[in-house]
Design a protein that fits this description.
With 303 residues, the chain is an alpha/beta fold. It has a single domain (27-31, 44-290), classed as Metallo-dependent phosphatases (Purple Acid Phosphatase, chain A, domain 2). The chain contains six helices and twelve strands. The protein has helices at 73-82, 98-108, 129-138, 177-199, 235-240, 271-277, and strands at 27-30, 53-59, 85-89, 115-118, 142-143, 147-151, 154-158, 205-208, 245-248, 257-259, 265-268, 285-290. The strands form two sheets. A six-stranded mixed β-sheet has the order 1-12-2-3-4-5, with helices on one face. Helix 2 (98-108) packs parallel to helix 3. It is globular. The structure holds fe (ii) ion (FE2) (2 copies). One fe (ii) ion (FE2) is lined by residues 6, 61, 63, 91, 120, 122, 249-250, 252.
Length: 303
């Protein structure tokens, strides 16, 4: 669904099937002068030079077109300099064509840090999201669709998500088959997020989505379209499997920050929103997490 802004209720949470370590309390800020500047040459080493922390730069809704060639390279260079990992929250292309995906892949070819992404609804518009994902994977992007990856000791679970509304207003699976199918898609995406999160055993975890899992970060959009911007069904796995932070896009005119009901920070990183709220800063959000200790080498120090 393409929206002007570009833009049933759930069962109670069950106890976790296994206890996971509580993730770090995340701090995420818009990129900008409030941060220590990255040292010169940091991008060449694939990091920001801060030994004790890992930095993640997150942005969504790039909406790359066939005319975008060359336009994102300075932006990506800034992100590489500021962060150790780049996170992309869907709507990477405007119409989901292979031509657009190739333009983005070429822009990303110059990125020197790991890139993890989910697709958005625009990446499905031409009916070939698999081709968009294949092209991006060819450029080294880890495209998550209900999967999890571990980057430098931090777990990242990602899926596109879906819509359907929030809280008591969420659409329920009742009546016509079309309504039931619509709700089933939201449930399916919710299960994909849950299964991805359940695979992670890292102390710190991040969730990547395109659609918004809470109503807080769509506030600012016309209330009439809230149900098409996300659904609180996506919030349930985030309660069962706590994460350090959640990033999403899609709501271009929403709010930059919110929290899940259990206090997990949620960041809307749609590029148009970041540009609007933080016009003086690069349009990505920085998340800082403690850098996990490197695993001990077998036999090291045992002589
Ligand atoms: Fe978008
Ligand atoms: Fe979108």
């Amino acid at each position: 669904m393409s929206l002007p802004s570009e833009p049933g209720h759930s069962a109670a949470s069950q106890p976790p099937q296994h206890q996971q370590q509580q993730p770090s309390q995340a701090s995420a800020q818009p990129a900008g002068p409030s941060h220590q500047p990255a040292p010169q040459g940091a991008a060449a080493t694939g990091g920001n030079g801060h030994a004790g922390v890992l930095r993640f730069a997150a942005v969504g809704d790039l909406h790359v077109t066939k005319d975008s060639a060359g336009q994102l390279r300075p932006f990506f260079a800034q992100a590489c300099e500021a962060a150790d990992v780049l996170l992309l929250c869907g709507d990477l292309t405007d119409y989901g064509t292979s031509e657009e995906a190739k333009v983005l892949a070429e822009e990303l070819a110059h990125v020197s840090v790991p890139v993890v992404a989910v697709l958005g609804n625009h990446d499905y518009e031409s009916g070939q999201p698999e081709e968009v994902a294949r092209i991006l994977k060819g450029a080294g992007v880890r495209v998550l669709d209900g999967e999890a990856v571990e980057i430098m000791g931090v777990g990242i679970a990602g899926t596109k998500g879906f819509c359907g509304g929030y809280g008591r207003g969420a659409l329920g699976p009742w009546g016509e088959q079309a309504i039931k199918s619509f709700v089933q898609e939201a449930l399916h995406e919710t299960l994909k997020l849950e299964s991805a999160l359940a695979k992670l055993r890292t102390p710190d975890r991040i969730a990547l989505l395109h659609y918004a899992p809470i109503v807080g970060t769509v506030q600012g959009e016309p209330v009439e379209i809230f149900p098409f911007l996300g659904t609180s069904r996506l919030e349930e796995p985030l309660i069962r499997y706590p994460v350090s932070a959640v990033f999403h896009g899609h709501a271009h005119r929403g709010s930059p920050e919110g929290k899940t009901v259990n206090g997990t920070p949620v960041f809307n990183v749609a590029m148009p929103l970041l540009r609007h709220h933080y016009p003086q800063q690069p349009a990505f959000r920085l998340l800082e997490l403690p850098r996990p200790a490197a695993p001990a080498q077998p036999g090291a120090g045992a002589h």
